[in-house]
């Protein structure tokens, strides 16, 4: 078997090997494995390796002799219990342990094993049972527990991991009945050792406060019971029958080819990666043999809620850093998610004992048709030429408790990369007394409040536009002045562009009034036709930034959420824009802190350097009742488009659309099929 | 045969009848027909008619006896020649001529007949031939003429229609060779009587000016000749073969049903209209029997160029008012534009003699799959439920000289309507001397400048949200204050929304920093679950507005281009946001003028009234070289989404996605098909 590519995730054997080395190092200790993942080689090592590789591909000669980077595992584990959290890098060849350190005051993410343990412990707790008793729930009610990470609010000692258990109930014996339709007036604070710290009533009236249950009894209001909050087909059997089948047929198979984690499609070539935290990552992306991006990944996301009443400020989830996009990735075959010819990628992660665990079908690779790519009709000849746009989709879907996120990279034939995010799933609800309403939430069912919240994503863009030294240019479109004698603008209609090349690390703002675009350019490579530097532009998804006050813990913990764009100097260890450890973090660990730490040092220079762009985007989600009981996907789209990178439309050679190939079917007037 | 529906376009017979009435009224005159189209009945007439019709549909009883509005044709014509431009409405029943008037100082649009006549006359003109001679064009060069409407710049008497003829050449005998690759240093000013007013050199160097050819000779620079600017498959025979066929199969046929211009699909019901100017229009749109929109249409578009040198300020096209989206609509079968099961709609327009002319396949109706509509995985049971999004597309494509626009209304199963615009086609180029560059254009080929320009669209949204009295609410998401004792925000993370109901006609601005949304609500109808007024929200396409100075003729002529959103009181005769007559207009005729004319009168009240929204959006198009020689479609999307209109997700009953229906195909690792 060929040796793994340096970007390939750890194989099950490599995971086991890393685990063995750690266990051997701590004989007689109980080692709880939290992270065993590939430590990607430094870029300094990878650049010559990839250049040799590309040369070999283009010249079909064997690769030059470039040292293959060592396989190194990045491991995080608890020694004994979670009070002793450690990190180490393990050389899988020699077994050597590198940079071992204690992670004082840091906490690992919350995983499903712990969540399920919390649920059980919570329901088994005598105090909780008594509190539930007092609610006098209806016959047949099944209480469900939603464990949440504790969003730091300064109300508790943070030396241990804390889990917030929000209680719900379902009234059906069906396991998929929607318990979010019945949020209970109860919540439980627990430690990760499953010790109950307190049992509380939630604020359920406009002026209620977060209070220990001992302060008073609140019976469940039976008038909240309703029958309209289900989504599962078993419980919504009466479904529309008007939607006829729609199939994608690819008689000659897909246009892509895969070889392990290497994907080639049309003129694109890239490597797929996957890890517990970011989930899907993309590496060494080239078009027609030219380097475009070194690495693309979702760096972090933050979901803060706008309800100011305790304990709801604790609902502030870092779904990557504190939950993990990889460990929460769906098996896409289960959901029957795609059409046409689909290639699935599996991933190998591990359990807390360090045993490798297969996560099947966490990434799907397929093609979609996106309508017209380009068209022109010459009215003189009446000849129309039209091409259709084929897109390669690399998709992963995660479930984080109530919500689903669909993350997809789209590669186009005209050399664009689009990153599409869809938010779906079920709203996280809280109880509200019948008749009450609050200005920071939507009533979606009787006694059910869907609080306002934001979803803010941080897309990490590590460019390599025709090389690894790039610059960022901010380009605005502005009117020409009317009264400048040096400017010829007699009709007052002239406009031009201003271009500012960014010199040092900084956050940046979007500006629609100036049609601002952000160009990643290579100042060392010029377009042969118009002599402009080659580049790619970022077309942002315009979004509101964080609403929480800059002095709040939310703002301090989510530094990336203050600005839509950031540019930093590349550093091997800077992957997560809210810091490596978001669980119960206090802030000061993210992208703004990095920039501050290097301010006015040469390391902050980003002109003609190895740079990284970070795009913050998302949605201020003030729920519609139409988002209930399950939310129609809300789409967000970010684009990376070539600008002066080619000498013309790279898709000019796409085959012309023909009926012979399309086999479309004419529908006669009045045709009906039911 | 059933009588036409009041919204049905004029039939060929009705066109001929209208024409006959006019000809009879002017015996012995040469009548040149410019417009013979349906005069849509007043809304006052239509409301009771549609309500009776809906009642009949829902109760399947025969419609109540509501007077059927008279069929009336709206006619514009020249009497004798274009110096006598007239307008009249003709009652097709009685032949009665209503509101006949002379359109003093107004001009009709530029059509293909006149464009082709101009091309011929231009090339036949002795002076033009001599000027071309002086260029000393290469052997086999074929000169092409691009006639343009004259964007008012104050340099010419405007009593007649003027046509700007820009000259290009192609070097291939192939009729579809790209002549935009060779813009010549020549342009000709003509009247619509084909009289040449002047022959000029274009500014081709940085400091050149617009000068009569008599002032000097400019030979064509043969070093501009290049071979890389073609798009037609005959001329780009070497096309990529890696794109495998991709077909959409609908074994049970489409999910839509058509009956004449009536379309029903899923729970939607609407009527399709079509006219010479707006092209595709939609009428009486309902979901599940509830009224949503009375009329949706593209009202206008403006394409001003940013090159300040005469004569380029004249390049400022109103592609609807001065060219016409209907008369320039593509025959969609020619282009083989869609996949799956497609229903085409034909249109009937007319020639200048008044003879009906069939425009086949100007609208296509088909379905597309849009990926995941909603999904949720219950991690407790491991059960995933996923539905796919089916969309009904109503599409029309227009060619206006060099450019193509693809206009599509998308109807979704979750009751949204999206309006998608794609801009494609070929850049309008001007000559530039080798070695020169200007700050308001991109060099796309040797000696070829693609000037900066904007595309600004005006979408007219005539809502009828559960009735015809609606209001507009501007809703912003804003942080809760930190220091207001009346506000409980101890953690500084609270946020809420402000809602302003608009009282009088006004332009409005978007504001991403506030996540501003625009809600069209019906204050008289409340959501039964949360008691909020029913509504739809507009999700705008964020765009830069007009760059031309407010004092410029561009700005005065394109009033809608100053703000992204406008709300007006409904008026039967206000359909075009730059006024009824944009050809060589001087301004003062558009949406801002309407509002000014009614300011502080009761007619300006828009709260709980019959209102119209106008959304201005588009793109500042500073060409990339990748847009050449044919432009990959640039997409813009506007959405209309229900907010508290339903009691929950209207798509909760969409059938679950299953492999049995999807028939997807698993791709094995390493599979290749070439």
From TrEMBL, chains A, B:
One of its GO terms (biological process) is amine metabolic process. InterPro entries: Cu_Am_ox_TPQ-bd, Cu_amine_oxidase, Cu_amine_oxidase_C, Cu_amine_oxidase_C_sf, Cu_amine_oxidase_N-reg. Topaquinone (TPQ) is generated by copper-dependent autoxidation of a specific tyrosyl residue. Residues 228-241 have a biased composition (Basic and acidic residues). Residues 247-651 form the Copper amine oxidase catalytic domain. Its EC number is 1.4.3.-. Contains 1 topaquinone per subunit. The keyword Disulfide bond applies. SUPFAM superfamilies: Amine oxidase catalytic domain, Amine oxidase N-terminal region. Belongs to the copper/topaquinone oxidase family. This is Amine oxidase. It comes from Helicocarpus griseus UAMH5409.
